[in-house]
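User: Hey, my collaborator sent me this sequence without any context and asked if I could get a structure. I don't really work with proteins. Can you help?
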Amino acid sequence: MRAWFLVPGAAGLGAELREAAVPEPGPGQILVRLRAAGLNRGELFGAKGPAKPGGNEGAGEVAKLGAAVAGYRAGERVMGRCAGAFAEYALMDAREAMKIPERLSWDEAASVPLVFCVVHDMLIGQGALKAAEWLLALGVTSGVGVAALQAAKALGARVIGTSGSPEKLATLKPLGLDVALATRKPDFRDAVMQATAERGADLAVNAVGGTMFAECVRSLAFEGRLAMVGYVDGVLKAEMDLEALHAKRLRLFGVSNKLRNAEQRAETVRGFARDLLPAIADGRIKPLIDRIYAFDEFPAAKARMEADAHVGKIVLRL
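Assistant: No problem. I've predicted the 3D structure and written it out in C-alpha cell form, which is a compact way to encode the shape of the chain:
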C-alpha cells in the first residue's frame, strides 16, 4: 500500500510517499480501508526522531477484524483515531472506533474523531461547561477551535473567540460565534469582561500557549476553568497569579492523550458518542471543512496547515 511518512530534518518536517505493508489486525483491532483522513496541527510541530507514518484520524470501511472484536462487520463504515491514517489502510483500536452516522460523507467523518473527542474532554469531561456559561476559545478558527465553538453552542453556552484574522472570524458568525476578537496578542481581558458584564469567562481554552496563559487567568470568572490544549507559540512556561488562583477558586487542567492508556482514551470516545455524536448525526453540528486535498497532494495540505491559512479541518481524500 501507499503511505505518507513524516520525516524530521534540518529544514523542518518533510513528507515522503512510500510503499508499506498492509498491517495485520491483532486482538481487539480493526483493519480499515481508509477513504479520508484529517490533518491535525500537533503532529506537524516539534517532531523528532526517525520517520514515521503520518496521520492520526480517519474514516473508511472495515476490511478485516482482529480476534475478539464484536459489533462490526466487513464493509461497514467506521471512523476513529488511528495511527498512520495518511495511508490506504490503517489499524483502529476497536474501543476507539465509531460507526459513521448516515448523513456524514467520508470527508466529514474524517474530520470528527480526534478533534471532537478532544473537545468533549475539555468542554464536558473536565471543563463542565453548562448552558448560558461563557467559553473563551483562543485560536477559534483552528480545527479544535471550530469544533469547540460548535459543541459549546450545542450545549447552550455562549462563545468568545480570538483570531488574528478578522476575515476568518467573520466565517464563524453563522456558526454562532457570539463575540469575535481580532487579536494575536494577550490583550483581550478587558473585551472579555465587557462582553460578560464584568463576570469573566467560565471556561477558557488555550491552544496557543504560554504567551496567552496569564491573560487567560485574568479573563476568568469566579470558579472559572482553564484548559491547556497546545502551545503553537512554542512558549512552555508562564507566570502564575497565585492570588487569582486562590481568591477566584480557579481550576487549571491539561488536555492531552500523550500519557493516557487505551482504556482512558476509550472512555472519552464513549463520552463523545453519548454527549456530542447525536448532535452530529442529526445535523445540529456539521463538521466545518476548510479544504479537501487528493492523496497525492498531501505536501500541499501540510503546507496550508503550517501556514495557518485554514478555518476548520483540512482533509486528505484517499
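In plain terms: The mean pLDDT is 96. You can pass these C-alpha cells on to your collaborator as they are.
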